[in-house]
Design brief:
Layout lengths: L1 H15 L15 H32 L19 H27 L1
Length: 110
């Protein structure tokens, strides 16, 4: 981030020419010291923003494992039922019912 800001400051310096020149608006005269102070403030601000963003990422990682009260809808562990699994389950149920019916017939006939 510091390299990017340094590059932007250098590009702005080269694009504007000398820092001590008068701006096109005709108002203020920037000195080298003012320019350096502004650059330092910009770098300090970018460092603070980077730190805040890294803290936000750390907090978000810590909150992933904790349940939240705002979550609505189905639970996370909902099994999916594809047609082949449904057919297999139905075949097992029908087969079990036929075996039980056959046993019942044998018991009643004996």
């Amino acid at each position: 981030m510091n390299r990017i800001l340094t590059g932007l400051v250098l590009a702005a310096f080269l694009g504007l020419g000398s820092v001590a020149s008068v701006q096109a608006s005709g108002g203020s005269l920037d000195t080298q010291a003012e320019f350096e102070a502004r650059a330092k403030k910009a770098e300090a601000l970018s460092e603070r923003v980077r730190r805040v963003n890294s803290y936000k990422e750390k907090v978000a990682k810590m909150r992933i494992g904790q349940p939240t009260l705002e979550r609505r809808g189905p639970s996370l562990n909902v099994p999916e039922l594809d047609p082949s699994a449904a057919g297999g389950a139905l075949a097992l149920l029908i087969g079990g019912a036929l075996v039980l019916a056959d046993r019942r017939k044998r018991i009643l006939s004996a």
